[in-house]
Amino acid sequence: MPVALWAARLERPLTEQETAVMLDMLPPQRRERVLRLKQPEKRREPLCAYMLLRLALWEQYRWRQIPEIRLSPQGKPWFPEHPAVHFNISHTGGAVLVGLSDQPLGVDIEKIRPVSRRAVCKLANVTTEEAFFQSWVRREARVKRTGAGIGTVMRGETPLRPGEFYYELDTFPGYAAGVAAGSREAPEAVRKYSLEEIL
Predict the structure, then answer these.
(1) DSSP 8-class letter at 111
(2) What is the pTM of this model?
(3) 106 exposed, middle or buried (CB, 10 Å; 0-12, 13-18, 19+)?
(4) Beta pairing, strands 191-194 & 86-92
């Protein structure tokens, strides 16, 4: 199956009632993780990422809720009751991204924002902020696919390995996004939603 992708643009803050409803829909461990975020405004993106995952699982498999999620020894989330269903989520200021596949995958989305010239040159050896975030997203998606750990992202970019494929994604203006997969088959077009559509 080709990688299926969903993205949502978050145009406004969540209300207290929306936050409460979303928290109730999360698996208990994910709920605890989100509640550890002390500032309520920091909860919007992770909550919406899980709501988008819930929508994706409904559209793809007709699952009514998010099943139990566990972490592999490398820290990669997976569904123990459905090991053949692979997923990955990402969130950044104002947007979230979800990918589903029958093989391991990694997705990342980043809002393009000001970065120091030194960081742009040192971490990605590029000249523009857009190119920096395209490089960052590519590295992070690849790391998330394998579960290798975020420290790997800081080491710089390496060539794709045999059997590894990367695709840039068209999501929203002002964002860089991509998916790393183990299939040469191009992913489906990203299904795009507003905040209202995922609530």
Answers:
(1) E
(2) 0.94
(3) buried
(4) unpaired
